Amino acid sequence: MPHFEFVKSSYSSGNGECVEVAGNVPGVIAVRDSKDPIGPHILLAPAAWDAFREAFGRGA
């Protein structure tokens, strides 16, 4: 299992609804709920992460 170095999203607010993202492992983007750091996380291909960010930016 690779070691992910998570950072809190710059879009996270102070209301506890936060996600953390790790991009330090080549070819993988990991996303997790900051309220549950030892819980499950989602692994995405970089292209899928880029598509998600683009759609999020458009408000889709």
From TrEMBL:
Residues 6-54 form the DUF397 domain. Pfam families: DUF397. InterPro entries: DUF397. This is DUF397 domain-containing protein. It comes from Streptomyces laculatispora.
